[in-house]
Design brief:
The protein is an alpha/beta fold and 496 residues long. The chain folds into 2 domains: 35-273, VC0802-like, CATH 3.30.2130.30; 275-487, 3-Layer(aba) Sandwich (Rossmann fold). The protein contains 13 helices and 16 strands. Bound molecules: S-adenosylmethionine (SAM). S-adenosylmethionine (SAM) binds at residues 281, 283-285, 308-312, 314-315, 332-334, 337, 369-371, 386, 388, 393-394. Keywords: Cytoplasm, Methyltransferase, RNA-binding, Transferase, tRNA processing.
Length: 496
Amino acid sequence: MSSPRDEAVEPGSDTVGPSTSSSSQSDATGGSIISVTIGATVPTGFEHTAAEEVKEKIGVDARISKDRGRIYFPITTDKLYQVHLLRSVDNLFVVVEEYDHYQFKESKEETLTELQQLASKLPWTDTLEVWKLNRTLKKKKGHRKGGNAAKVKPNSDASDAVAADAEQHELPQVSSTAEDQTTVESVPDLETCEQDSQEAAPEAKVIKFRVTCNRAGDKHSFSSNEAARDFGGAVQEFFQWKADMTKFDIEVLLNIHNEEVVIGIALTEESLHRRNISHFGPTTLRSTLCYGMLRLCKPQESDIILDPMCGTGAIPLEGAIEFNSSFYIAGDNNDMAVNRTVNNICHFQKRRADKGSPSGLPIDTVRWDLCSLPIRTSSVDIIITDMPFGKRMGSKKKNWDLYPSCLREMARVCRPSSGKAVLLTQDKKCFSKAISRMGGLWRKLHTVWVNVGGLHAGVYLLKRTAAVFGQTPEDVHESRGMVEMQGDKKDDQEVS
Ligand SMILES: C[S@@+](CC[C@H](N)C(=O)[O-])C[C@H]1O[C@@H](n2cnc3c(N)ncnc32)[C@H](O)[C@@H]1O
């Protein structure tokens, strides 16, 4: 267990903390290089994939937290910009302090008092330096004006996965709305701060902050709201910052998972999973999850990759951006879905063109019925798709017909022996039955269990076997067999 260090910064009303650091080297912005720990939230189930990406792109080992959906890794601040280029992370923060086994006091009052005392004992200096550096690195995206309420609300399949017993609360505003509005006018937003960061000292402005407490575990005597309120009050007093829930410059994170406590400062204003999509649909998949699925099938140069149920095109678009030596075909039988995919591709290309980057993407879009694809037999290398779960999209009943039909058609177009499929579904029972009735055309290699909008789903990596399509009796009688099995309650053994 780590313990609070006595190197807390001097409080002050007009600074974010003194500019001390441990090294004489400088980073790209001329500041000293500091070593810190970065925390990242990632799609649950894909923690190892994220750790692999960190190793590959930043060259350091990441630690996977007990708290599923989080990884931690060390960096020096000259690598900070690379952290923002990671594709498998949703939100980033810099760790102020972490405790593996925090001994919470018995009573609520004692625990909250201790949390208040903690605020002034934490080693804030380096992390606040990183926050400042991060602010100058960030693209001018604009401040989160209007706060969370103004954000595009994704559908449930795309929304943040929160453990059933987890609570998430923000520090309630200390001052009245009228006072806050007055303060908003007198305090420049983050974008303005970025613009004048080279000019007059932006540190001279009053810093606005909020505390967000993410708590999971049932043995706590306090709520996350109480923890955020009391810890936040102490932070406010220590730094003389101003609390503001919506128009804040700094977001302090208090992550509590059973006995693990991590205090951090957020480095992202909004989850990086929204990066590609401008036209959302009812079941848009997070780009970070799409990236994890794509990595599972390891796209190779000149592979033909199909998403036959593309919805808004989140998977093939991520593929065309990140694994761009393959070619992607995105199809759907719904006109609105196809239009959204086209719009998302066009919007992304325009954004690129506006920045002067090459705008072409290796992707095409088509309206089709997956059960009868206009594609030659054995011509596709990888099929990667997010199937209707039968909750928001389609129905469980229809899946008993749809799954065998589409698995068979996918097996027809996919190359025997080398072809692969990565399929996401929450309708695990129907999926497993359908696979087992495919006459050996598909073999399950691996399953990653993920949380999609609070639903426990499987990402199945399948290999197309050498079996010749159309030669097994199961191919012929597949649909009938599946319909007959609907009443069968016995679950298949999952291979993972
Ligand atoms: C879960 S959604 C895919 C969401 C997508 N991954 C995204 O990020 O937006 C499933 C999609 O399958 C499509 N679909 C259902 N049956 C189909 C069929 N027979 N042929 C083609 N598409 C189909 C639906 O229209 C829907 O867009």
